[in-house]
Amino acid sequence: MKPRQAAVIFILVTVTLDMLAIGLIAPVLPKLVLDFLGGDAPGAAKMFGIFGTVFALMQFVFSPVLGVLSDRFGRRPVILLSNLGLGLDYIVMALAPTVGWLFLGRMISGITAASISTGMAYIADVVPREKRAGAFGLIGAAFGIGFVLGPALGGILGNANPRLPFWVAAGLSLANWVYGFFFVPESLPLERRKAFTLRRANPVGSLVLLRSHPELFQLATIQFIGYLAHEVFNVWALYAIYRYAWSAGSIGTSLALAGICTAVISAGLVRPIVARIGERRTLYLGQFFGGLGVLMAGLARTGAVYLGSIPIISIWNISSPAANGMMTHRVSESEQGELQGAISSLRAIAMMLGPGLFTFTFAFFIDQEKGWNVPGAPWYLGAFLLFVAAAMSTRIPRVNAKTEPAAVAPPE
């Protein structure tokens, strides 16, 4: 196997195992929090919400830090340190005697999971410019596989022992660290490394890079709108229960279907679509179908139609790899880590803002005291955002990734 191919496979395995580990603990973490709080359901719901906000906050703060560190010291040590830290973190959570220890574990998870941006930079290092969108699509497939298998396996293990999924997640992360330590090479040559500066590592300062080129800023804005729209899925289960009286089993099945569609489309469609119509058209085509599917979910009068919206929404998954590929063409090779860190910070901001935006919209439009009942309102809002992003995407100039010269890094 070629070194470059082996390196890409390692990144795909890393992301898959990271998502698998996160999925493993998803079915048992709420119950564990509830037990620690003595069965106080409202208190557990609030605490779980705090966990999510803290996780996103850690991503926002540390994604640019790890990205800039990887530009300075290389991708390999940052990824390996993250895998090791994640494995040890799951051990802490498995042994946690109080909810405070779980809270600490979620903070550490947010920091170490921020290394996914470094994995994206690794791919940008080893994959030719014209093939990056397809490689980023495989990352999406890895997310989908982890999202399908993790919760299913975690539920089975959790029935036996609520702490067991944490131990299995720790084992997967540590095994990944061992493999990477012995078999994965560094991807960033010494001559392409860039000095570490606090300005670049600052989560706000890192966003300055996204304003260094008008088209890069446009793409970043489009990506942020897409990330924000994606947070509409925070109401997926609540909406299904409210409108269709779905059971937990039906919700689980729908999430598994979403994961399968994500994996199939990301792995099988991104490369041929980008090769045929280019990254720019792939970007807005995916956003358009995503908006169409989200609108369909809001209009669905039956659970079957709601379920049928999933494959259409999933076509949206071709957009992000195309956008990422286009963005990597507009910065120098020594700034790929900083770029991916800045993109992850945008995603984290959306993760902090989006849940409240869509859940409060849902609550507002089903409030009987207001005299209306429009449960599809959050989906209509999500569809509007995606159609706006698609319209903006049509205005991005065409770029030939094969012939465009790499961006030149500005002087320090």
Query: CATH topology of the largest domain, which one?
Result: Growth Hormone, Chain: A
Label the structural class. Answer: mainly alpha
Q: What is the overall silhouette?
A: globular
- The total strand number stands at 0
CATH class of the largest domain: Mainly Alpha
From the N-terminal CA to the C-terminal CA, the straight-line distance is: 39 Å
The CATH superfamily of the largest domain bears the name: MFS general substrate transporter like domains
Instruction: Name the helicity range.
Output: over 70%
The low-confidence parts are 401-412
Mean pLDDT: 82
Order of helices and strands: HHHHHHHHHHHHHHHHHH
Descriptive account of the structure:
The protein is mainly α. It folds into two domains: 181 residues, Up-down Bundle (Growth Hormone, Chain: A), CATH 1.20.1250; 188 residues, MFS general substrate transporter like domains (Growth Hormone, Chain: A), CATH 1.20.1250.20. The protein has 18 helices and no strands. It starts with a helix and ends in a 19-residue tail after the last helix.
